[in-house]
Amino acid sequence: MLTEPMDGANHSVVSEFVFLGLTNSWEIQLLLFVLSSTFYVASMMGNSLIMLTVTSDPHLHSPMYFLLANLSFIDLAVSSVTSPKMIYDLFRKRKLISFRGCITQIFFIHVIGGVEMVLLIAMAFDRYVAICKPLHYLTIMSPRMCIIFLVAAWMTGLIHSTVQLAFVVNLPFCGPNVLDSFYCDLPQFIKLACTDTYQLENMVTANSGFISVASFFILVISYIVIILTVQKHSSSGSSKALSTLSAHITVVLLFFGPLIFFYTWPCPSRHVGKFLAIFDAVLTPFLNPVIYTFRNQEMKVAMRRLCRQLVNYRKIS
Predict the structure, then answer these.
(1) Do the Cβ atoms of 89 and 181 come closer than 8 Å?
(2) Higher confidence at residue 209 or residue 160?
(3) Which residues pair with 18 in a beta bridge?
């Protein structure tokens, strides 16, 4: 929708944007509706269960599970920022979002992304200390250090998102107002501005792209250091370390793969981009609790204990 500006200028101002969505095929839309709804509900339940289990079970009151519970909270937020509207829009002929709604989506997407990057780095550091410096683990990974990591994560996310939006929010938008996606994000949003955005696009690539790639390489190097350190102490240590770290490495790949494609790939494919966007918004928040739960015997035991307590409580009441 276009509205005339208050100053009476001879151009119109965009007040809302139109999503092209994922597909025009009714059969594929129905399949996407069923799968997306199922994975969304499952991810909400799985991540909520992890948070409840870590909070209620004294055996899990440790730095590793504190960080895992916060990662689950972030995954809840990831699911809620884009998935509900995508599911709601699947059968709508005109998929609209207001200008403010678009800006809000962009803000929270980048806040959550920044927080998750720092949390994944904190979890890698936690595993490094636990495996390479076990005698000093409780001293280094103290409750104070965990809070510092958490505050640093949220400050990084807020600063990262606010800095980018400060350059974008006042751009002139006079049409077109069509986004070939199912959610708002900076690369496509900036291209719709009625001005030269070449430098701004480079700034977004440098900001989001550099942070994504740098964080990814920090994590890769840290896990390589952990494995090499274990190999020095035991010939069979590498397989044990890989088993311990496989969940963390898998989650890192799931998170950073789509991000690096979105912000650093020079000529992104529209279809591949949409597939990765769905994967990032719907599947990754579901897979994270599955990966951490199935690869962690202590978490599975704690969840069974919690379920028994809930069943016994219902019987008593």
Answers:
(1) no
(2) 160
(3) 96, 178
Token pair belonging to 303: 């969840």
- Give the Cα separation of 207 and 304 in Å (integer): 43
pLDDT digits (tens, 9 = 90+) for 189-236: 888 888 888 888 888 877 787 888 888 888 888 888 887 777 776 555
pLDDT above 50 (res 9): no
Instruction: Output Rg (C-alpha) for the chain, integer angstroms.
Output: 22
Cβ atoms of 285 and 82 within 8 Å: the answer is: no
Beta partners for residue 178, in sequence order: 18
Lowest mean pLDDT among 215-219, 252-256, 311-315: 311-315
Distance CA 273, CA 50 (A): 30
141: DSSP letter: T
Q: Within 13 Å of residue 296, how many CA atoms lie on the same side as its CB?
A: 21
pLDDT at 59 over 60: yes
**What's the pLDDT at 188?**
85
Could you give the CA distance from residue 1 to residue 212 in angstroms, rounded to a whole number? 34
Helix (H) or strand (E) holding 190: helix 186-191
CA distance 249 to 223: 8
Query: Which residues touch 46 (CB under 8 Å, ≥6 apart)?
Result: 72, 286, 289, 290, 293
Q: Using CA atoms in the order 137, 140, 146, 147, what is the torsion angle rounded to 10 degrees? A: 160
Segments in 22-176 forming alpha helices (H): 26-56, 63-89, 99-132, 137-140, 143-168
Terminal-to-terminal C-alpha distance of the chain = 55
Structure tokens at 132: 């390479």
